[in-house]
Amino acid sequence: MLARLKTLGHLRLLDESGEDIVFPEKALLILSYLTARGLPDIPRADAAALFWDDTNPAAAYASLRQTLSRVQKRQRELARSFLTITDGTIARGPEAIESDLDAIDGNAPLTLLAERLTEDFLKNIRPVTQTLAKWIALQRASHMALLRDALLDRSRQQADAPRQVRSAAALRLLETNPDDDEVRSVLTGRVVTRPAIMTVQQPSACLPVQDHIEVVPARQNPPRIVLLPPATNHSSRAATGFSEALIEDVTIGLCALRSISIIAPHTAAQIAGQTDRAATYERHKISYILETRLRDEGAGHTLFAQLIFFGSDEVIWAERFPLSSDGLLRSRQMIAHRIAGAIATGIEDNELVRNDYEGDANAYRNFLLGQGQLKNLDLRDIRRARKSFRDALQLQSGFAPALSGLARSFFLEWLVTARGDEALLHQAEIHAQDAIQADDRLPSGYRELGVVKLYSRQFDESAHYLDRAEALSPHYANVIASYADTLVQASRPDDGLKKIEHAIELNPLPPDEYFWTAAGAAYSLGRYEEALAYISQMKDKDPVHRLSAACWAMLGDIKKARLFVRRTYDINPNFDFDAWMAVVPIKEEWHRQHYREGLKKAGFK
Predict the structure, then answer these.
(1) 228 vs 243: CA distance, rounded Å
(2) 103 dihedral zone (left: phi>0; alpha: psi -120 to 50; beta)
(3) Sign of CA dihedral 361, 362, 368, 371
(4) CA 241 to each of CA 141, 166, 226, 335: distance values in angstroms, whole numbers, following the listed order
(5) Half-sphere exposure of 268 (CA within 13 A, CB side)
(6) What is the DSSP letter of 320?
(7) How far is 91 from 43, CA to CA, in rounded Å?
(8) For the whole model, what pTM was predicted?
């Protein structure tokens, strides 16, 4: 029975039932090298230089010996021999191994190539030598050249290669080289009058290590966009099929634009399954994300689409499309056209902002790190985020997003510590003003200034700055959430709850402060169970123990209320109830007394 070596995507060795065979990674790399090059063996000296440290032969030989020892032990445990090891060579063993590289050559049909070459060769391997890195790059370039030839050579396109296969192949190639107009013409149907730049000349499926290849550089830093597969909520099969086809239509439509780079659908599907999408977006250098959600609404459906700029986690365009059950297919092209047009316009309008964000890669990385740390309402994370923003400013002074992040960190520390420290609010105000001065096109500076004014009890000024932020970015969930907080504290909890619900719709996996605001609004409206339901969705509930205590007290469960009072003092032994009530920014007295009543009933003194 045959084992199978998987080299496209994650490097794996699978048994006959498809289960992973645990085997040393370097041994799998040697197998991949022998398979890809069609060689029976490799000299031990070449293996040491190729897969270990080529600048330190002694260390490389030592690492090779250790690995081969583990290989022999593992093969004895498995009672199988994938590699035969001698004093001078490492050869293929007697065990027969299939590979996903089998039949990938110049005669392979488009259907086979499009199916297999959806992922890069040895995708997750980080080469430790330049020789290995070059060989892997050559293999990947060779695969793309084979796919390109099969796509453009009509005589080799089988009759069973449907439009979806050709589209998938074209999108995969454009992900690698957005400037290839001949490939683009497969999607757009436009005639190309000049030949496209070839990345690889005379490609071979088995390129030797010493071969030299000159790669023509692509356009400088085009923005990358990923169109995530649509999220559905128990929708009908027809509606689900509609939404998936819609994303394909939008993707193909966007390929007419040479100013952006599209992530291929297969890669997009993998990204959608990642637990830490933010890290994935950063790793793939993705600037924009299109999310769509299809929901059942009575006899029909609603499609919600939004375009997010990753640099600021800002929704720069969003729209809802009502759909009728009998009009899905008829409306597909119209909706695809509108979405593609909105994406193109939104990206064009946002490009100056993107260039500002990504002007210094290290500063941008520190900013993103700080943004991630601020998602947790924990004092340690807040202070770590502040350091990350300061590190970004050391590299790029006047970087407005980092200045806004600093302002946010000082405000959140003021909120979490609950000491009424005016110095923290003052620092937040200074950095918010600096952010506006550095770039008055960005909504984040106005947002932070509006928040500071709220907690300084300047309610009208707060609304003014948040109005300005919302006007600059009407779909920016964070701005809308801050505006909702202002409305709640300004004793308009009904309006505030509607606005925070809209923010949550725009950002379905929001930070804890969204739920905190929603819980505060629900409490103010006397909907205590609803408030507790919002609190239950928070990852870190420590900052809202006071509100939890008030809710349980108003529901008549004093035992649970007392529990949260104790937890409040456990976390903050110096908490002063009267001092806190003196600084809580609540505009109307009825509203303040309602909050005080719940806290008093809970046992705060």
Answers:
(1) 11
(2) left
(3) negative
(4) 34, 19, 19, 15
(5) 26
(6) E
(7) 9
(8) 0.57
